[in-house]
């Protein structure tokens, strides 16, 4: 489908959110097309999670319009599994019994084909986060909201889980909003990266790189440098 005919997945108009006297989101406009992958960077406390929570329907804005698809789901920094339920029951939680087959196939897709009867306490951090991804997949979201889902993982597991998310998104094509502190992660995964600063979306920039991205590609390095500068972080010489 060409860009012009891709229907919108998200439309925000004049989205404003205040906490007390502080305006965290200041009349934000944002359009996301179906299947588009946006990463949202920003200094700590700028309202990235608040924006994601509004998209998820967990927070109500003070004013503005929010158009989001009905089928949307969030993966958080922690997997948020129910410890008293086995893995498959966690994956299909809140779904009809008929979702069991989809649950098993989602577990296979995240590389845990034999985990259905395991208990959450027996999972590593990376495995638990993959179960959370399987739980999201079963819901066939049109909009997948990712709130720093890799932040609690060790460096190697983080890279592997990023690759997994990249593959899953390529296969299932939900629209994605990924909130992250990590510039490299944003440039590695997203089609478009925006920076939230002082309540506004700055530097909303498409990433014109091939699907599988090489961190040593000079264009990758240039994007990285650009977003670090947007965040006010000078990049180290030669990095
Ligand atoms: N329920 C709340 N009540 C009062 N203030 C809040 C509430 N939720 C968030 N805030 C404030 O709104 C601002 C934005 O918070 P938010 O968590 O959205 O930022 P963030 O960009 O996601 O931060 P971080 O990168 O550190 O996770 C912060 O100053 C925070 O203290």
TrEMBL record:
Keywords: ATP-binding, Cell membrane, Membrane, Nucleotide-binding, Translocase, Transport. The keyword Transcription regulation does not apply. Residues 10-223 form the ABC transporter domain. The keyword Methyltransferase does not apply. InterPro entries: AAA+_ATPase, ABC_transporter-like_ATP-bd, ABC_transporter-like_CS, ABC_transporter_ATP-bind, P-loop_NTPase. GO terms for molecular function: ATP binding. SUPFAM superfamilies: P-loop containing nucleoside triphosphate hydrolases (SSF52540). This is ABC transporter ATP-binding protein. It comes from Hamadaea flava.
């Amino acid at each position: 489908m060409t860009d012009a005919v891709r229907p919108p997945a998200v439309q925000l108009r004049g989205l404003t959110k205040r906490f007390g006297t502080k305006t965290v989101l200041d009349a934000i406009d944002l359009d996301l097309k179906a299947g588009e992958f946006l990463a949202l960077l920003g200094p700590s406390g700028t309202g990235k999670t608040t924006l994601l929570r509004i998209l998820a329907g967990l927070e109500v804005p003070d004013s503005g319009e929010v158009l989001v698809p009905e089928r949307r789901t969030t993966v958080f920094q922690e997997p948020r599994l129910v410890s008293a339920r086995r893995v498959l029951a966690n994956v299909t939680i809140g779904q009809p019994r008929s979702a069991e087959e989809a649950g098993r196939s989602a577990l296979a897709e995240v590389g845990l084909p034999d985990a259905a009867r395991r208990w959450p306490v027996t999972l590593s951090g990376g495995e638990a986060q993959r179960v959370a991804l399987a739980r999201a997949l079963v819901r066939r979201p049109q909009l997948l909201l990712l709130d720093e889902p890799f932040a609690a993982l060790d460096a190697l597991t983080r890279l592997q889980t990023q690759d997994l998310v990249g593959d899953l998104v390529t296969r299932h094509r939900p629209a994605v909003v990924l909130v992250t502190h990590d510039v490299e992660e944003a440039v590695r995964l997203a089609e478009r990266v925006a920076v939230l600063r002082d309540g506004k979306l700055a530097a909303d920039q498409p990433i014109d790189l091939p699907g599988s991205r090489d961190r040593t590609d000079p264009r990758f390095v240039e994007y990285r440098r650009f977003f670090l500068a947007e965040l006010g972080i000078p990049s180290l010489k030669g990095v």
